[in-house]
Design brief:
Blueprint (H helix, E strand, L loop, with lengths): L1 H26 L1 E7 L5 H14 L5 E7 L4 H13 L4 E4 L8 H9 L4 E4 L11 E4 L2 H15 L4 E7 L5 H14 L5 E8 L4 H13 L6 E4 L2 H13 L5 E6 L2 H8 L5 E4 L2 H16 L7 E3 L3 E3 L4 H5 L4
Parallel strand pairs: 1-2, 1-3, 3-4, 4-5, 5-11, 6-7, 6-8, 8-9, 9-10
Antiparallel strand pairs: 10-12
């Protein structure tokens, strides 16, 4: 009888241990991270910040997914995370308007949404936004360029992909400043979709058309670098500037090839998004907005800002 009792107790204990193990595994929380494009240089730095931050939380699983700048792909990724009953989702929306249904779907499923870098069209349903004010970026960019031009001249604008939230808001900031400078004319304005090669191609077309251009303002550094390459190939010197202050752009600013850049703290946004999502899944209250300001960067401060990436 004693042996039988011991066997029974052993079985009960083994079952209890197994149950605890299963329960423990089930308790591990998951945070999904939906990124527009893993190949975009700014987003690479933003993910560096995210991954530095997520190392502090080994008890949470972080799932990173690349939409490759395709809104439908991102929709499918969101649906998969909803099916997994993910505890929170960080999303950098490919298209603010197209993301509305998928965000609603997640919120209706009880999954909190944190937007990063780009606001959602229905931002009010998200628990927080971590990023910067893109109107401010456009105003800083155009404001400094207007000073370099002495308040007059012809400018060309390289825009991000049409319909993207930063494209809309950065252009709004540029136009806000131009209202104060009636002697600065936009003689060319085209999207280059955030990419260097497209920025280069658009700039080549402008130069070949014989347009008189005194300066180029680009919605990001990648397009600005593309414009710079085209201008150098054509033997043309003019003011060119962009937004982000990536290490490569800072090097061109240091050399005097780019007039300046506007720093957007990619790693800071990434870290902030992870920290905010972790607070949310742990039941803590978070701010509706975590705003990280843009900063103007000249040649003299290029080294200081480059050190932020190390």
């Amino acid at each position: 009888m004693k042996t039988r009792r011991m066997l029974v107790w052993l079985v009960i204990m083994l079952c209890a241990i197994s149950l605890c193990a299963v329960t423990g595994a089930a308790k591990k929380k998951t945070i999904g991270v939906l990124i527009c494009d893993f190949s975009d240089q700014f987003q690479v730095y933003m993910m560096d910040g995210m991954k530095e931050a997520d190392k502090k939380y080994p008890d949470i699983e972080f799932v990173y997914q690349d939409a490759k700048y395709d809104a439908n792909t991102q929709m499918n990724q969101m649906e998969n995370l909803i099916m997994r009953n993910t505890d929170a989702i960080i999303v950098m929306p490919v298209d603010a308007k197209a993301s509305v249904p998928m965000v609603k779907q997640a919120v209706n499923a009880g999954i909190p949404i944190i937007s990063v870098n780009r606001k959602l069209e229905n931002q009010e349903v998200a628990v927080s936004y971590v990023g910067s004010n893109d109107v401010e970026a456009g105003e800083i960019l155009m404001g400094q360029m207007a000073k370099l031009l002495g308040g007059k001249g012809n400018i060309a604008v390289l825009e991000g992909q049409m319909g993207h939230e930063p494209q809309i808001r950065r252009q709004q900031g540029i136009m806000n400043i131009l209202k104060k400078y009636p002697n600065i004319k936009i003689v060319a304005d085209m999207p280059a979709d955030w990419y260097r090669d497209k920025g280069m191609a658009v700039m080549e077309n402008w130069l070949q058309s014989g347009l008189k251009i005194d300066a180029v303002v680009a919605h990001n550094d990648e397009m600005a670098i593309g414009a710079l390459k085209a201008a150098e190939d054509a033997g043309v010197r003019l003011f060119i500037a962009g937004i982000d202050a990536t290490p490569e752009a800072l090097d061109f600013v240091r050399q005097g090839k780019l007039a300046f850049t506007v720093f957007q703290d990619a790693k800071g946004q990434g870290k902030g998004a992870i920290e905010t999502a972790v607070q949310v899944v742990n039941g803590k209250k978070v701010s509706k907005e975590v705003i990280i300001p843009f900063e103007l960067v000249f040649k003299e401060k290029a080294d200081e800002y480059e050190a932020k990436y190390k």
